[in-house]
Amino acid sequence: MNELDKPSELSEFPVIVSLPVLWGDQDSFGHVNNVVHIRWFESGRVAYMAQAGFPIVRPEAGGYGPILASITCHYRRQLSFPDTVLVGSRVTRFGRTSMTVEHAVYSQSLAALAADGQSIVVMFDYAAGKSIPVPAEVRAAIERLENKSY
Amino acid sequence: MNELDKPSELSEFPVIVSLPVLWGDQDSFGHVNNVVHIRWFESGRVAYMAQAGFPIVRPEAGGYGPILASITCHYRRQLSFPDTVLVGSRVTRFGRTSMTVEHAVYSQSLAALAADGQSIVVMFDYAAGKSIPVPAEVRAAIERLENKSY
Amino acid sequence: MNELDKPSELSEFPVIVSLPVLWGDQDSFGHVNNVVHIRWFESGRVAYMAQAGFPIVRPEAGGYGPILASITCHYRRQLSFPDTVLVGSRVTRFGRTSMTVEHAVYSQSLAALAADGQSIVVMFDYAAGKSIPVPAEVRAAIERLENKSY
Amino acid sequence: MNELDKPSELSEFPVIVSLPVLWGDQDSFGHVNNVVHIRWFESGRVAYMAQAGFPIVRPEAGGYGPILASITCHYRRQLSFPDTVLVGSRVTRFGRTSMTVEHAVYSQSLAALAADGQSIVVMFDYAAGKSIPVPAEVRAAIERLENKSY
User: Fold this and answer.
1) Which among D34, D59, D69 is the nearest to C30, CB-wise?
2) What residues contact D113, with CB distance under 8 A and at least 6 apart?
3) pLDDT 10s digit of each residue in chain A, 150 long?
4) ipTM value of the model?
5) Do D71 and C69 touch (CB under 8 A)?
């Protein structure tokens, strides 16, 4: 996304994906259902990893990859169709085997943040079936993307 | 659910719903996708409110109802098809306008908890478009269901 | 969508929506799951009706609206993330109380049609709870949009 | 499912799966959204293949498996939460490389068929990336399950 088009609410987020709200995303209360935000967060994480240089590969390919340990979402405003959301993602913290991804969902119709939250992602060795320390190459790539050191 | 069939991991949860894992719940990693747990939590909340005597009604009916303010899920074990999960719900805390619902997802195939988390639910006056103090009747009904005072 | 950007495979479709394939749209076979195409068709129908001047309203608003009587989808090519699909919609036929909507899904990654199909939509009087003849205003609006008479 | 509990509307279907309608299956019209039926059909197909002795395996395992060529669903009655549906599946026809699966969705709340339809499933050699004649072992297993010859 062009920096000029990025709303100030997302200025700290290096990776933004633009996603349409679908009519079918709404539940019987007439608003976007709470599971949809979690799907948006996922799309944001996947885009983040791809932009950092680590596209998501299927476990069959071997090697390591991120798996989700926990997720939190704060629902700030009710959304409805039609709308387009901008989903921002950034890494705010590294643990030994994990990293924290912050998410923000900006509604273009409301011109406001509609939700935010965070994911804890663990680096996982698919063949060994266990978590591993965050590889130095992943951390370095994220530091380049975020333009800072953790 | 018959108390005799309830796994000990769910013994503190007064409301349990049994839900099948669907083949289509799995994502390209071959495990149940993280959004599915959030849908399970929702099904648990809806069942809880119904069992307390407050079935979910659509906002058009007027009156008040619960809306979701935030959700957290901890993914403990990877699930896959086929399986059946038991989703436990209980209310652990009341705020002035909110209540905290704890969730636990038990996998029958794994005979273990697969996920847990919590929702913060706010009581909302649909006509007025704003949150309201938890009505005394709701609190009383939940105290009966939980067999305790908050 | 700008006519110049419209692929020739969609040249007969007056309404096109562009939708991103999400990572989570993929099932455990590693391809976009078959239910996702049905959601895309729905998004196409909703956009079509809006562009014809009949945005989808909730039944509570009274009046009439379209309900889905049947759907068919032919899966032509397997899709995967990342990709963007263009979903074309057009009305090809009117019955007394129904109309036939044709759908086509074009994959930008494959530069080819990935799926096509049709929906039969029935005009429904929400208050009366029964189907009604297609209102003359709906038919006229669609004839304008399609630039033809049926 | 016990034959005694099987509704007469499903008497011709050798494989039945029982699935709960979830609150979140409903869309903003307050009824079960049309994509949900397609997910139910999928769950029926998967159960059918498993009961015939061919559980769904991921393509990485090599060999062959069924892929969906087309699907049709007729929506007969509007469904809503709470309800439980019984989804019947049967194979009605073999082509050289394909078979036709018929689906029926019975609503326990309505005590009536709510939807029916069919899938065309093609046998696919994952390694070769092309369809293959329906293997004799698959056809024999289905003839045993259906208790007839095609």
Assistant:
1) D59
2) D9, D76, D77, D104, D105, D106, D107
3) 666 679 999 999 999 999 999 999 999 999 999 999 999 999 999 999 999 988 777 777 778 889 999 999 999 999 999 999 999 999 999 999 999 999 999 999 999 999 999 999 999 988 888 999 999 999 999 999 999 999
4) 0.95
5) no
